[in-house]
Amino acid sequence: MDTTVMFAKEMDNQDNMRTFKEEFYLPENQLYMDGNSLGLMSKRSEATLENLLSSWREKGIDGWTEGKDPWFTYSEKLSERVATVVGANSNEVMVTGSITVNIHQMLSTLFHPTAERSVIVVDELNFPSDIYAVESHLKLRGLDPAVSLRKVKSDDGYTLTLAAIEEMLTEDVAILMLPSVLYRSGQLLDVEKITEMAHSKGILVGFDLAHSIGAVPHQLHNQKVDFAIWCHYKYMNSGPGGSGGLYIHERHHDELPGLAGWFGSDKTKQFDMSHDFSKASGAGAYQIGTPNLFSVAPLTGSVELFEEAGMGNVRAKSLALTQYLRDLIQAEVGRFSFVDVTPVDDEARGGHIALAHPEAARICKALKQANVVPDFRSPDIIRLAPISFYSSFEDVWEMVQRLKLIMAEETYKTFSNERNVVA
């Protein structure tokens, strides 16, 4: 493999997405490799947020129904556009809530425990918040998590196998809920095969798309996934604390929301002020409260960029960037005991590369001192995520050179090997 900077420059010259970098605010001289935790701000997102601020400033309460983008239907219209990113019908997606709130909503709506089926299966590598939500939901249903919550085991501590997942799908399981991409290792699960496997046993399937939406194309409707939840502030670049999203397949739209709220009403009847709930016809029924419009508006600008670029191009560049990154890691710093724990095959890799190293926390601190923004995940993972919209191949090359210098000169040893409060 060619490890010269000239090769990286040539790759950038051939990149059909290179002009999108101009759309983002990039900290000067900084190499940002943490877009899988928080995406950078785009000028489009800034503009759409400013547009909403202007409508409030100029129209006051009339902004709910007047202007170019009335607030009353803002989330519904945006949701139709987000649906294309995840391969869903326009009525199956809703921009609303957060991952945790939306997990509670989906379980409250679709989990109907019986004496025969009362188990929810998750995995032992999942993000803690998802587990907290499932455990608390089971307790609210009067079920003991020690009995009704089971976790798929990992053979290597980084990845899951289809065999291990299938082994957990016994006759008493009602719902299987997994991440589409494992947040530590970056493993991309086979959503279609897992869904088919679970459905063949009468089990509903949900996925947390936090680490795949905006990086990996999905076909949720065609693959018959029952539900999904996600955030928009990672690869979708909607800003810190940006509103999340949910998907629920149209075959479940007759279900009343388990957590009913005013904004889940039929929009034509919402202001009737009736105490009789009139459910919206699609995924909008599973909203709860008034949209957090200042957290929703930046997503509109970001979605414009995805529409212009196309998810196929986003994915192709992401795969090329992460493959180039791992090749450089092996060639330039492989001798320094880094272990690449991300699956090799393109179809099993999300949008980041995960390196295990016993000194991971202090190496991340040294990288930040060298003006590189990585991501640390306990106990020993360095996550590096070059982003299709604003990372170049030369950025990746330069980042590895800085890492090589840190390791060769052992400057990381001047830092403690303990994570910061926010890793």
UniProtKB/TrEMBL annotation:
Domain of life: Bacteria
EC number(s) given by UniProt: 3.7.1.3
Keywords: Hydrolase, Pyridine nucleotide biosynthesis, Pyridoxal phosphate
Gene Ontology cellular-component annotations: cytoplasm
Reaction catalysis annotation: 3-hydroxy-L-kynurenine + H2O = 3-hydroxyanthranilate + L-alanine + H(+); L-kynurenine + H2O = anthranilate + L-alanine + H(+)
Names of required cofactors: pyridoxal 5'-phosphate
Record note on quaternary structure: Homodimer.
Record function comment: Catalyzes the cleavage of L-kynurenine (L-Kyn) and L-3-hydroxykynurenine (L-3OHKyn) into anthranilic acid (AA) and 3-hydroxyanthranilic acid (3-OHAA), respectively.
Protein name: Kynureninase
Native organism taxonomy: Bacteria, Bacillati, Bacillota, Bacilli, Bacillales
